[in-house]
């Protein structure tokens, strides 16, 4: 099998005429050039150059080969140029469905870099709580907080979420007298963190959205268990130094199992995974402001 790298040595030597000059162009020793030419000749089963006192002179076989290899060089160069311009060549619609708080706190502040890099991609953000968009295949990608994504979706868990208990300054000042907590509507009984740390607490309000829970906590309505990337980016909240264990919820980048992965979808998926990874310390609560 012919080695393309050997053909590059052949091209340069045919143009320069001596192994020393070819070595300087290629950035290698002249003996390396001679060795690669010899390997090519053995591979082709024919002599390509006559060694003379003045250098290397092409044989008829080499002259016949030169046109073919020059054409190959031009095609390889064209591929390289197209690959270099691939980013700007990606074009078309791309629908990304994201949960509200993931979008507002983690994705939207940095999505401009992707849009700038791929100006011909029509980025469309769909803010939803559920995965109905992917079920109907109306979106290309989804970013979700979930313990287990549905079987009809495939993707990658970027990392586990970290949760903490958060409170406003006013709530902290009265925490020894009158503890109130904010729960989800689905939490019909006291969750474990309340039973362990605030068993006498009263429920002040129930919500159906984690962003609303963070705002309610910052407004002094009560303590709330929040993902750290929400609690630590919500003005007016402080994290309590209470151990509530690890979470089985993770941040996932997902797509429908039947969806064909286009180049633009793959580019976006890789960008999102890198973006989320860059926010690991925030997502895992390593920079929390403790009360």
SSE layout and pairing:
Elements: H1 4-16, H2 19-26, H3 30-44, E1 49-52, E2 55-58, H4 60-84, H5 86-89, E3 92-98, H6 100-117, E4 121-127, H7 132-135, E5 141-146, E6 153-160, E7 163-167, H8 169-173, E8 180-184, H9 192-197, E9 202-207, H10 210-218, E10 224-227, H11 228-231, E11 238-239, E12 250-256, H12 263-278, H13 280-283
Helix pairs in contact: 1-2, 1-3, 1-4, 2-3, 6-12
In short:
Helix content is 45%, strand content 22%. With 291 residues, it is an alpha/beta fold.
Strand content: 15-25%
Strand/helix succession: HHHEEHHEHEHEEEHEHEHEHEEHH
Cα-atom radius of gyration: 31 Å
Please tally the β strands and state the result. Answer: 12
Count of distinct structural domains = 3
What shape does the CA trace take? elongated
CATH superfamily of the largest domain, by name, is Periplasmic binding protein-like II
The order of strands across the largest sheet is 4-3-5-12-6
Mean pLDDT: 87
Helix content: 40-55%
| Spatial gap, N to C terminus | 69 Å
Family: Belongs to the LysR transcriptional regulatory family.
Keywords: DNA-binding, Transcription, Transcription regulation
InterPro entries: LysR-type_TF_proteobact-type, LysR_HTH_N, LysR_subst-bd, WH-like_DNA-bd_sf, WH_DNA-bd_sf
Organism: Aliikangiella coralliicola
């Amino acid at each position: 099998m012919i080695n393309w790298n050997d053909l590059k040595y052949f091209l340069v030597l045919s143009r320069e005429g001596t192994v020393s000059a070819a070595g300087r162009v290629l950035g290698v020793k002249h003996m390396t050039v001679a060795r690669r030419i010899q390997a090519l000749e053995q591979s082709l089963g024919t002599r390509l150059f006559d060694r003379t006192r003045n250098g290397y002179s092409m044989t008829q076989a080499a002259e016949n080969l030169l046109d073919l290899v020059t054409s190959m060089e031009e095609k390889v160069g064209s591929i390289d140029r197209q690959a270099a311009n691939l980013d700007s060549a990606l074009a078309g619609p791309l629908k990304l469905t994201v949960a509200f708080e993931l979008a507002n706190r983690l994705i939207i502040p940095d999505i401009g870099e992707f849009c700038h890099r791929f100006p011909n991609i029509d980025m469309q953000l769909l803010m939803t709580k559920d995965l109905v968009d992917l079920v109907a295949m109306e979106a290309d990608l989804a970013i979700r907080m979930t313990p287990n994504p549905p079987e009809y979706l495939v993707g990658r868990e970027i990392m586990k979420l970290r949760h903490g208990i958060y409170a406003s300054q006013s709530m902290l000042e009265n925490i020894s007298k009158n503890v109130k907590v904010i729960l989800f509507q689905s939490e019909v009984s006291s969750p474990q963190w309340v039973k362990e740390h605030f068993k006498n607490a009263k429920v002040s309000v129930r919500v159906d959205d984690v962003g609303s829970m963070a705002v309610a906590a910052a407004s002094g309505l009560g303590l709330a268990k929040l993902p750290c990337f929400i609690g630590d980016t919500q003005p007016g909240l402080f994290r309590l130094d209470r151990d509530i264990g690890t979470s089985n919820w993770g941040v996932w980048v997902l797509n429908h199992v039947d969806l064909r992965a286009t180049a633009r979808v793959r580019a976006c998926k890789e960008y999102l995974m890198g973006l989320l990874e860059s926010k690991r310390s925030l997502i895992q609560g390593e920079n929390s402001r403790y009360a």
